[in-house]
User: What shape does this take?
Amino acid sequence: MAMKKTDLEKNKALKLTHSMKQTRSERFGKGATEVPLDRREQRKLDQAKGLVPFACKLDGELVSVLKERAAAHPEGMTGLLDELLRQGLAAGDGKA
Assistant: This one.
């Protein structure tokens, strides 16, 4: 069954109002809603910084302590681990 012209116009209006609600204006609230990067873009940024993925298995209690500390660290988990590993390696070099 074909739709009436008025029904078609109502649907167009609904689509238009929905699209207007979904769009973000460039003028208002710049930077207020930053869209997180997708994995590919994040990987490219990490490679540009010289970061390499490194996986290992750790004790559950240690991981929970690291997560607590990483929440307060400005660079998150990556920055915290980098800082702790550098400190540990520097302390290990001094003992030898």
About this structure: The radius of gyration is 25 Å. The chain is about 65% helix and 0% strand.
